[in-house]
């Protein structure tokens, strides 16, 4: 009787139908006392770590700029991402965008800042600051904490 797993693989197109079952069955059984011989060509596969160590990036030498962006469409996110990856703080003014696109852009900016160990802060209802990990932002924390309960785009 044929192997059900083999039949399924053939059905899904993952194996060929002209498989020689007789060759598999006539293979000599491996004895329990003899260790299984490894083929000479098999080597352990290289392993890529899933997480990198969170080593802080050094601040760019002579950082002396902050980029201000007034996006009109979501495609302007590329400019924001390129500058932020280079370690430049970015101020995003969303006053010229529609609300759905502005929400989408803020979601993107939040993921960008989280992925690069930066920080995103709301300055006003439609203005946000993306600061890289090497930039410290000081300000009135009490005022910022009082806005937490408000909706993202309340007027």
From TrEMBL:
InterPro entries: Cell_div_SepF (IPR023052), Cell_div_SepF/SepF-rel (IPR007561), SepF-like_sf (IPR038594). Residues 24-56 have a biased composition (Low complexity). GO terms for cellular component: cytoplasm. One of its GO terms (biological process) is division septum assembly. Pfam families: SepF. It is found in: Cytoplasm. Residues 22-60 are annotated as: Disordered. Keywords: Cell cycle, Cell division, Cytoplasm, Septation. Cell division protein that is part of the divisome complex and is recruited early to the Z-ring. Probably stimulates Z-ring formation, perhaps through the cross-linking of FtsZ protofilaments. Its function overlaps with FtsA. Homodimer. Interacts with FtsZ. Belongs to the SepF family. This is Cell division protein SepF.
């Amino acid at each position: 009787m044929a192997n059900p797993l083999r039949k399924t693989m053939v059905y899904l197109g993952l194996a060929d139908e002209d498989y020689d079952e007789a060759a598999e069955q006539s293979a000599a059984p491996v004895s329990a006392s003899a260790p299984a011989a490894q083929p000479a060509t098999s080597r352990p596969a290289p392993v890529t770590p899933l997480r990198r160590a969170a080593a802080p990036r050094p601040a760019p030498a002579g950082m002396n700029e902050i980029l201000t962006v007034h996006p009109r469409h979501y495609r302007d996110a590329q400019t924001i991402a390129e500058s932020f990856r280079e370690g430049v703080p970015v101020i995003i003014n969303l006053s010229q965008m529609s609300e759905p696109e502005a929400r989408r852009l803020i979601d993107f900016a939040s993921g960008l800042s989280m992925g690069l160990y930066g920080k995103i802060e709301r300055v006003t209802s439609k203005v946000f600051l993306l600061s890289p990990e090497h930039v410290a932002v000081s300000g009135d924390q009490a005022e910022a904490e009082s806005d937490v309960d408000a909706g993202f785009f309340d007027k």
